Amino acid sequence: MAYDDPKTPFLPVNDRSQPSSPPPPPFSLKSMATLKNFCILLGPLLCAVICLCVTFDGPTTSRNMLAVTAWVFAWWLTEAVPMPITSIAPLFLFPLFGIASADGVARSYMDDVVTLLLGSFMLVLAVERYNVHRRLALNITLRFCGEPVSPPFLLLGICATTAFVSMWMHNVACAVMMMPVATGILQRLPVNPTDGSARAATPINNFCRAVVLGVTYAAPIGGMSTLTGTGVNLILAAIWKSSFPEAKPISFNTWFFFGFPLALLIFLALWVILCLLYLSKGSSMALAAYLDKAHLKENLTLAGPMAFAEKMVLAVFGTTIALWMTRSITEDIPGWGALFHGRAGDGTVSVMVATLLFILPNGKQKGEKLMDWNECKKLPWNIILLLGAGFAIADGMQSSGLADILSKALDFLEQVPYIAIAPVVCLISAIITEFITSNDAAATLVVPLLSQMARTVNVHPLALMVPGAIGSQLAFMLPTGTPPNIVGFTTGHIDIMDMMKTGLLLKIVGTAIVSLLMPTLGAYIFGTKG
């Protein structure tokens, strides 16, 4: 129903001229006995069992917090209730169980990190509206194509473009937008199926596999680079700020100095793995007859010259990045944020430039702006609410005393060396994302617990929280692991075995890189030595 149309009634009007729908089937208890209804009941049942059977030495609010957490996590893991609705459940559960006041828990859902996400998504919607990403992708890929075509470097160009775009927009949106660009290049190639959906291992078919896998995996890898690239990075920053309000928050440029080298190493590993698995010596000759720069130039010609609106969006985009990177530089060079005595945050920048999008003209029609509110109806409120729930749970664990109890329960890990814990933490997060729930939900579940575990093993909390957050983004083996995996799998160019063998190698290499970078570069960037 078109609710935006003022002539459309809000409530449906019965039209007697239309045939009536058949009556619903009679209600029965048997119709209620479904798996989904059982999962819905599972949350309250776990909550009741914990409240009745579990006792702690601390205050009763700690037991209540554990019960509420079990309820919310059960709904998150089973998705019995839509994830956005589960994410707002703390708004009524915390006051009812005496964990926090209604005002207190509501404040957890709005923070500088949340405003950072809101403004960033508005900027991404502007980029999508004017197809700036597609023009950028074609230009960069054209530079890598080579003459004659070089499959490894063309693959590098396509994957690098995807990773770069994903640095500045959510990786799911990046994968959805970049996959048609990649498959459009592959449409010129004669892909030869054998029997059923299996494809012959010819150089051309293998190149198609490599390109689709590259775009599928480059999107989440590129998103690791920046704070706004993935919801997981924002969830980590939010939980860190909520759990340790006296500590220095994770700003955009702080994360970039760690996340970009991390993503670059994992990206190079991806490229090498794809080249070794799928690009043979004869692939260049096989592709030369079908793929050259002329095809890419033709697509650019069809796109036409860059319009005024595209230039304006790029200008706003570049200004946003510059302001993020220079707000707080070093202790000796404070950045422009010092002019406002630390009151301005990354969210301030994000919302300010998002506001500009509704003020600057797009040059198409008189009075028309770069953005209008109808475009903002596409905002991913599920991620925004999930981020708020992460804040609420982290605050609740601290205020209820549950955090201290969990920390004491993990005393047995005190003697385990950090070098052995970090890879395990990374792998556990990856497995949870791969088989159980989304990476955003996995990070929301795991990261608060890791902050308590870090206190037990006497390491800096970020030394475990960062590997746990990154690990939840290393779900590369199954189509259902992440939305970009589904996007790649549905193209028909790859099968599960392609994802299993490539994803397993990438998961192992990624875990090793995170485990090595965190105690070295991470110790310098985040100050985790102490």
UniProtKB/TrEMBL annotation:
Locate the region Disordered: 1-25
Q: Which GO terms describe its molecular function?
A: malate transmembrane transporter activity
- InterPro entries assigned to the protein according to its UniProt record, in alphabetical order: SLC13A/DASS
Compartments reported by the entry: Membrane
Q: Which domain of life is it from?
A: Eukaryota
The way it spans or sits in the membrane comes to: Multi-pass membrane protein
What sections of the protein cross the membrane?
35-56, 68-93, 113-132, 153-179, 255-279, 300-326, 338-359, 379-397, 417-436, 504-526
> Keywords in UniProt for this one?
Membrane, Transmembrane, Transmembrane helix
* Protein's UniProt keywords contain Membrane: yes
- Indicate where this protein is primarily found: membrane
Q: Which GO terms describe its cellular component?
A: plasma membrane
The entry's protein name is Citrate transporter-like domain-containing protein
State the organism of origin.
Gossypium darwinii
User: Source taxonomy lineage?
Assistant: Eukaryota, Viridiplantae, Streptophyta, Embryophyta, Tracheophyta
